[in-house]
Amino acid sequence: MSSQTPLSAPDKLTVPGRGKGLIDVFRQRYLLKLIVKKELRVRYHGSVLGMMWSYVKPATQFVVYFLAMGVFLALGRNHPGYAVYLFSGMVVINYFSEILSNATRTLVWNAPLIKKIYLPREMFPVASIWVAMVHLFPQLLVLLVGTLAYGYIYQSPIPDFMMFARSVGAIFLGTLMVTILSLGLGLIFGTFNVFFRDSENLVDLLLLVAVWMSPVLYPLKMVAENAPAWVYDLYILNPVTIAVELFHYGFWLPITTAPEHMENLLAMTGLGFLVSFVFLLIGQWVFRRHEGNFAQEL
């Protein structure tokens, strides 16, 4: 009579190299923390300024765009608080661009580690989010100081508590929306980049036009007034556009009295999250379908 006993639930065999996707990433937060530290250490290795580049690069970008669009093309002449409007949109674009660009390349960058051991491969795109958040904070700090300075100089009305709470909520929702969308797209393009290195060049091309495809340099009302209705409807389906408007609501609107197309912002926010979650689900499906071949292709 055999003495073997059935395997208990915890001892059941699992398919090697297969996990539970993003769930495993959050279960192994300590490993994620180590990868984030490694990414930051590698990025600033041998750098004199180090984290100061988080201030220098967006500040330089802001000055260039402000001079070109706000001064030379005079968009800021009839747009109160244009500097705050511009920079609040650029913060969103910079955050989105950094996550998507790094998430697309991170699997290739970490090829030696992926080929040696098994760990949730989603760990690397998710680490790109945390690295981008480290760089997001200085930009938000500079933007907040600029917003308060503008309101003080031009004696804009101080928002009440409810307006302040709504502003903080809008900024949080905008950040969360961009995070979900960029992670979903990062999983998709990161998978493609393992097999086709042209994917990272395609992402660079998309990010090159991203600043023009959202109301960063120009007000949203210009699109509503000059584009056909169906073009405008497609335009506001872009979650980055909605996130930019949420940042405008959080930083720009409290210090201005200018009318803006924000009456439908709540509905737009719900739609933006729906689109973002769809991309996240697609990204996770594509990633898990092909991750078994990553080590071989890398």
Tell me what you see in this structure:
With 298 residues, the protein is mainly α. The protein has one domain (54-297). It is built from 13 helices and no strands. It is globular, with a radius of gyration of 22 Å. The mean pLDDT is 81.
Report the major sheet: none
Helix and strand element order: HHHHHHHHHHHHH
Output the structural class: mainly alpha
| Overall geometric form | globular
Task: Work out the strand percent.
Answer: under 5%
Cα radius of gyration in angstroms: 22 Å
How many separate helices? Answer: 13
Q: What distance separates the N and C termini?
A: 49 Å
Low-confidence stretches: none
Query: What is the number of strand segments?
Result: 0
Average residue pLDDT: 81
Name the helicity range: over 70%
Number of domains: 1
Q: What's the gist of this structure?
A:
The chain is mostly helical. The chain is built from 13 helices and no strands. The chain is globular.
Give the helix/strand layout.
Blueprint: H1 22-27, H2 29-43, H3 53-72, H4 82-109, H5 111-116, H6 123-153, H7 161-195, H8 198-210, H9 220-226, H10 229-235, H11 239-252, H12 265-290, H13 294-297
Keywords: Cell inner membrane, Cell membrane, Membrane, Transmembrane, Transmembrane helix, Transport
Transmembrane segments: 59-75, 123-150, 171-196, 202-220, 232-253, 265-287
Main location: membrane
